[in-house]
Write a structure and sequence with these properties.
CATH superfamily of the largest domain: Type I PLP-dependent aspartate aminotransferase-like (Major domain)
CATH architecture of the largest domain: 3-Layer(aba) Sandwich
Distance between the termini: 47 Å
Largest sheet: 7 strands, mixed
Oligomer: single chain
Number of strands: 15
Strand order of the largest sheet: 4-10-9-8-7-5-6
Number of domains: 2
Helix content: 25-40%
Bound molecules: pyridoxal-5'-phosphate
Order of helices and strands: HEEEHHHEHEHEHEHEEEHHHEEHEEEH
Radius of gyration: 22 Å
Strand content: 15-25%
Length: about 450
């Protein structure tokens, strides 16, 4: 066995892989990474077009973050959560500055699912109510209640899950039957009316929160057609004393060309969850930011949340350095500018490739749905089923040509680090285009 095979064999023998039957794992052994690229042990280069799990926003191997981590390690690596460090307070302040409205106080976790768990607990404590309404096509993490909250099929193995999650339908104008007989704008409003009806039917005195991804991520980058959707959701939450929680774990920190996905809609949630881009993956960290009203409530009432690694000093240092880089390198503006260009380039791709059914996204956050037939919209691979032959061929073409992309069912994602430039983007898009020639062959006329 060569070195690569040794590494893979040891990993497969002694460690588990997520969300799969273990024998199907087919990992790349990564030796090093820099900027938008990583390399395997044979020296093969991959462009990181999924930003790993949509988090390496500032790119790999940034010395500024590495140094901040080392400096913090030298000073103090950890204190228990009821002691404080300078960096924890500075990070809290930096988050208050970039989050919308009066989301001014943060509780730190180690990742996204923990942030969701604690956000739901806070909403329940604050309102004294129990139920949380979420969307079917969403993902909020793999822990028990977070997995129940996600509507994504990754929740199905733990069903019935927690009893206080209620799922509602998504603003998925391309496929949802709600949009079949009306315009996308009308469909959005019907969904809002249904949300209000759901709250009434469940009992307004039992609904604590509505939890939505600030901008939908791994469920297919499904966005409402106008900001009116979010404005109406905000009004409904206010009317029934329901806490609006925006999950920005994936869509936060510039991914969509704004600091947070919800910033596209001009709406301020009561609670926001963050992780991933908060540190760009240099170290694990998540956060739950709350508005002033909720913060005031917890001045007098116990915050029944706690984690050994709450506000880990070294993770906080990584986050603070990462946030500085978003500012210094103008990465969010880069995502917005390249996003405009990408939109145009993907439109051209749509015109060229009959297997492309719909292209959705903003900033550097895009999903392409592949279909066998544009009229019937029959998927190139069925939802929640093993990938079809055409999708497997497409996925293996991308990988063998040095593009590490997220491919799921009939969906292909384009989510590179925000430090990418246009030439790098074009180089990768030429390979994506060749890959779509494969699926084009499976189009039924
Ligand atoms: C929107 C969203 N929320 C929460 C999570 C869970 O984050 P983590 O995997 O860090 O627990 C994810 C992970 O992909 C996510 O996309």
């Amino acid at each position: 066995m060569n070195q690569t095979q040794d590494i893979i064999a040891m990993n497969k023998k002694y460690t588990y892989f997520s969300w799969m039957a273990q024998e199907t794992a087919n990992p790349i052994a990564v030796e090093k990474a820099k900027g938008i690229y990583f390399w395997d042990y044979e020296g093969k280069r991959y462009a990181d077009f999924s930003s790993q799990l949509i988090l390496t926003n500032i790119g790999h191997g940034d010395e500024r973050v590495n140094n901040a981590i080392i400096e913090q390690m030298k000073q103090v690596h950890y204190v228990q959560p009821n002691l404080v460090t300078k960096v924890r307070g500075e990070l809290g302040k930096a988050l208050a500055e970039v989050t919308p409205g009066d989301l001014n106080k943060a509780f730190f976790t180690l990742g996204g699912a923990e942030a969701i768990e604690n956000a739901m607990k806070m909403a329940r404590m604050y309102t004294g109510k129990q139920k949380i309404i979420t969307r079917y096509r969403s993902y909020h993490g793999g822990t028990f209640a977070a997995a129940s909250a996600g509507g994504d099929p990754r929740r199905i193995p733990i069903e019935p899950g927690v009893g206080w999650i209620i799922h509602m339908h998504d603003p998925y104008s391309y496929r949802s039957p709600i949009y079949r007989h009306c315009s996308p704008e009308e469909g959005d409003m019907i969904l809002c009316d249904l949300l209000e009806e759901t709250i009434q039917l469940e009992g307004a005195n039992t609904v604590a929160g509505v939890l939505l991804e600030g901008y939908s991520g791994s469920s297919g980058v499904i966005a409402p057609s106008t900001p009116a959707y979010w404005k109406r959701v905000r009004e409904i939450c206010d009317k029934y004393n329901v806490v609006l929680i925006a999950d920005e774990v994936m869509s936060g920190f510039g991914r969509t060309g704004k600091w947070f996905g919800i910033d596209h809609y001009g709406v301020v949630p009561d609670i926001m969850t963050m992780a991933k881009g908060l540190t760009s993956g240099y170290l694990p960290l998540g956060a739950v930011s709350t508005n002033e009203k909720i913060a005031a409530y917890f001045e007098k009432n116990m915050l029944a949340c706690g984690l050994t690694y709450n506000a880990h000093a070294v993770s906080c240092a990584a986050a603070l350095a990462t946030i500085k880089i978003y500012h210094e390198d103008k990465l969010i503006q880069n995502a917005a500018d390249l996003g405009q260009k990408l939109k145009h380039k993907l439109q051209l791709m749509y015109e060229k490739h009959p297997s492309i059914g719909e292209v959705r996204g903003v900033g550097l956050h895009w999903c392409i749905e592949l279909v066998k037939n544009r009229k019937t919209r029959e998927e190139m691979s069925e939802w929640n089923k093993p990938m079809s032959k055409p999708m497997l061929e497409l996925s293996s073409y991308l990988r063998s040509n040095g593009i590490a992309a997220f491919v799921r069912w009939n969906q292909v994602y384009i989510c590179p680090p925000l430090c990418i430039n246009e030439a790098q983007l074009d180089e990768a898009l030429a390979i994506y285009s060749k890959a779509f020639e494969i699926t084009d062959k499976y189009v039924l006329n």
